[in-house]
Each structure stands twice: as C-alpha cells, then as structure tokens.
Design brief:
heterodimer; A: about 240 residues; mainly alpha; B: about 120 residues; extended
Chain lengths: ~240, ~120
C-alpha cells in the first residue's frame, strides 16, 4: 500500500516539477539568452533532485517509479520518423549541401568532443559517455547503454550541449552574418538537437523544419555508425 | 481514440526494433531501428501520413522534455564519477559544441545555393 502510494507521489513529482519548470521558461519569453538557460530540462531536474535530497529518497526508487517515461522516450524516438518523412522532400532538392554538412557536422561533433575530453584527462568511461552528445536525447540514452557509457551522465551531457548550442548558436550566426533560416535550422538541429530545435521553431516554421531534419538525420547516422566505431576502437 | 491508434503503431514499431536489436545482436538501439522501419514504411506507402499518426507523433515530440526529465535528474546522482572528470566533461561540451557550430555553419553557408524565391 505504502509502496504503491510512493510510486504515485514520485510520478506526480515529475509532472509538478515539469509544470513549474515550463512556467519559469515561459515567464522569460522576452529574454532569449536567459530563456535558453531556463530550459525546462535544466530547471526541472534541479527541482526534482532538490526534492529527493530533502525527503531522503534515493534516485533508484524515483527512477523505478518513473519507468513509464523511460519507455516513452523509445516510443518518441520511433515518432521522429514522422517529421523526417514529412521534411524529406527538401533532401532531394538540396541533397549535396545537406548530406555533406550532415556528415561533417555529426562526425566533427563526436571527434572534437572526444579529442578535447581526452586532452583534458578524461577516462575511457567519460569518453564513451560523451560520444553521443550531439544526438537527440532518447537516441543518445539508448546508445550510451549499448556502448557501455553511463546513461545518466550522457543524459546530462546531451542537455548541456543543447543549451550551449541554443544559447551560443544565434550569436555565432549573427557573427558570421548568416540570415538564411534553412542554414540556421539545419546546423542547430545537428549541433543542439531537441533544445535547439525548439528554439528554431520560434524563429520560423521553415527554420524548425530544417532543424528537425538535421536532428533526425544526425540521430540516425550516429546511431548506426557510433556503436561499430566504439567496438572497433575498444578492441 | 486516434491518439491510441497512433500510440499502438509507434509501440509496435518500437517492439519490432527492440526484437531485431536483440535477436540479431546489433549494437544499434531498438527504437532507432523502429524509427528507420517506420520511416521506410511511410516513404514507400506513397500516401500522405495519416493525420492520426502525425498528430500522435507531434504531440509526443512536443512533450519530449517531460519524458526526459527523470533520466536527466540522474546526472545529480551519479555514483562513481571522480571529481577530476568534470573538467574534461565541461570543457568538451562547451568547446566542442562551439567549434562544431562555427565550422558546420561556415561549411553549409559555402555549400548552399543562393535562394531564388526569397522576396
């Protein structure tokens, strides 16, 4: 009876923290830089952690109660096929620039993260957990599990990457003088996955469409190549 | 009802993907295989995406942050990350993301044809 009640309360905690985080996010609508920092995936987990620490509940128990969300992450990964299919006509028209940018961006994101972490003294486990950093969150989690990283670390790394990309992206595009929303969208989708894609949809519908194209293509490409590369390098 | 129908299709593809990943022993996550199979099914069906499926998919994607919240909370409860790993982690994220953004944007700007239909 008490276990059952605990599960319900821990599940409710997720919903309440998310609602509060979303409210905070919308409160800062007029301030893009602050708003990106206030992303629900930054403030929400902070609230849940604070609550768990305050009530002396361990994370495993919370995780167990929230299994539903872990399952739905997989379902949402499957659902990414839908925008990918709907935006796919862009690929035939812009095949060369999109494919070259995708292959360069997706591999450079992994390679640069690994080299920098290795130079700064990262352990093998850290490197493996960092590798899927530019891939959309549900795919990255599954990948990290498959290649022997720490999924919880990967989860944090991916969100942090998205926030950095969503905050710094607009500054970099302005600095380079890029105004084409197809470029802004596609590059944001490659580098800053879901967090960036949400920001891209705020710029324009077309920007968002190119961002989800970049997000889906990077996810698929990395998911199918990274596990083999990791196996190859570890042996 | 439409939401249920959409969910049923998505979970079905998720299950097929997981099954293939397990049985064939491929290191690719099951849901990713499911995503590719659904994508191929949509591409080769030569019809519009059914509205009920589109709506279910888009609402799931809209609530991605909510579903990701429990996983993300785990970052604060990592068991054995030694303290000296935080610099490589933070450094890699910030520097690598900036570099990737910059170079990818420059490359795509070079490659994209000038837009004709822009007013």
């Amino acid at each position: 009876m008490t276990a059952w009640l605990g599960t319900i309360l821990l599940l409710a905690l997720t919903f309440v923290a998310f609602a509060a985080a979303l409210w905070l996010y919308r409160l800062n609508r007029g301030r893009p830089t602050l708003q990106a920092l206030m992303h629900p995936l930054v403030t929400g987990p902070l609230m849940v952690s604070a609550m768990l620490v305050a009530t002396h509940i361990d994370y495993d128990q919370y995780r167990e109660a929230n299994q539903l969300f872990f399952f739905l992450l997989g379902t949402t990964t499957v659902a990414l096929a839908i925008p990918l299919h709907q935006q796919f006509h862009h690929i035939s028209r812009l095949f060369r620039p999109l494919i070259i940018t995708l292959i360069f961006g997706a591999s450079f994101a992994v390679a640069s993260a690994l080299i920098i972490a290795w130079l700064l003294g990262g352990s093998v486990e850290t490197l493996i957990s960092l590798a899927p950093k530019s891939v959309t969150t549900p795919i990255a989690l599954g990948l990290s599990e498959k290649i022997g990283g720490l999924p919880a670390l990967t989860a944090g790394v991916v969100v942090f990457t998205g926030v950095v990309g969503a905050v710094m992206g607009p500054l970099i595009f302005r600095w380079l003088g890029i105004t084409d929303d197809r470029i802004i969208g596609f590059v944001t989708g490659i580098c800053a996955h879901g967090v960036g894609t949400t920001r891209a949809f705020e710029i324009s519908a077309r920007c968002g469409a190119f961002a989800s194209l970049g997000l889906g293509m990077t996810g698929a490409l990395t998911a199918f190549s990274l596990p083999w590369l990791v196996i190859f390098f570890l042996n | 009802m439409n939401l249920l129908r959409g969910l049923a299709v998505l979970v079905l593809f998720q299950g097929i993907g997981e099954g293939i990943s397990h049985i064939a022993g491929i290191p690719v996550p099951g849901p990713v295989i499911g995503m590719v199979l659904l994508f191929l099914a949509l591409q080769f069906s030569h019809t519009e995406t059914p509205a009920w499926l589109g709506r279910t998919g888009h609402s799931l994607i809209r609530w991605l942050s909510l579903m990701f919240l429990p996983a993300c909370t785990g970052l604060f409860f990592l068991p054995d990350i030694s303290r000296n790993q935080w610099l490589p982690i933070a450094g890699a994220i910030v520097l690598a993301t900036l570099l990737t953004l910059l170079l990818t944007a420059l490359l795509m700007q070079k490659l994209m044809p000038a837009e004709a239909d822009r007013p």
